[in-house]
Specification:
The protein is mainly β and about 120 residues long. Helix content is about 10%, strand content about 30%. The strands form four sheets. Strands 2-1-3 form a three-stranded antiparallel beta sheet, with helices on one face.
Length: about 120
């Protein structure tokens, strides 16, 4: 098994993700120390997970790590979307209830801040 670590750049942006073997990363600090020593002393690392089981959300390149909240925050998909209490981006209008029913699909229209039904390909 391996543990995942996010490499943080300017303004705590995730600029990379590395793995460290469990027997090396026996603690978060042991994993960070290993990465610092093997990456030209690059100092800014934080443990993460793919599924969000660590630090509220999974880390992806381009996301941000909020140190105060100890949470990864994904890339804001649209300017009108806001963060909820779980640090996930939410649209100002909920996805229509029939999304996914009988193949119905919707795309977000930022100009109108609304969902628009997408016609299936012919």
């Amino acid at each position: 098994m391996t543990k995942y670590f996010a490499k943080l750049g300017v303004n705590n942006k995730v600029v990379g993700i590395s793995t460290v073997a469990d027997d090396v990363a026996t603690t978060e600090q042991a994993g960070i120390d290993f990465l610092i020593n093997s990456n030209n002393k690059y100092p800014f690392w934080v443990q993460c997970s793919k599924d969000g089981s660590i630090r509220k959300n999974g880390a992806i390149i381009g996301a941000t790590y909020d140190e105060d909240e100890d949470a990864f925050i994904g890339i804001q998909p649209y300017k009108s979307w806001t963060l909820d209490e779980n640090y996930k981006w939410q649209p100002p209008t909920p996805v229509p209830a029939d999304a996914g029913v009988d193949g119905k699909r919707y795309d977000w229209n930022e100009e109108t801040t609304s969902w628009v039904e997408v016609s299936p390909p012919e």
